[in-house]
Amino acid sequence: MKKFYLIMLGILLIGLSGCKEKTTLQAKKVVKNTESGLPLLVAQAFEEKYPDQKATSWKKDDLGYWEVIYEKDGKKYHADFTIEGAWIDTENSIKKEELPDAVKKTIEEKYPDLELVRIGHVVSSRHESDFYDVEFRKEEKEMDVEIKEDGTVITVKEKS
């Protein structure tokens, strides 16, 4: 009787390990929504994160994330997701007047000679709080600066 239980346990373990491989292989395969071309995991993650919003367009960005674009209250938003459907961040453009005073002060003090090109309000899974993505230009050079609500500079990236 003991042999019978051991044999059954062995068969069960072999069967379960086969299921795990199949699930892993399916998860790695990128399934796209046939109607939109958006990867299914990204579409599902967007619908889960923003159930009341409808995507107006989507594209793969320079970092390899899927950027889903939608509108809310007359503003355009860009939500980034990994191919596996993990949410990275959501950004929308704002005007300088909408910035917190501390961020305006940082811009005026640290970057007075640079032309302000664009400002984005960003909510991110990678940061503790919202921040502002500010793009500057001076002649041929561009700079991307991330600034916290309290005016602290997070990162500075120069582009050529």
From TrEMBL:
Coiled coil regions in record: none
Protein name: Putative beta-lactamase-inhibitor-like PepSY-like domain-containing protein
Matches recorded under InterPro entries: PepSY-like
Taxonomic path: Bacteria, Pseudomonadati, Bacteroidota, Flavobacteriia, Flavobacteriales
Domain (Putative beta-lactamase-inhibitor-like PepSY-like): residue spans on this chain: 68-154
Organism name: Christiangramia fulva
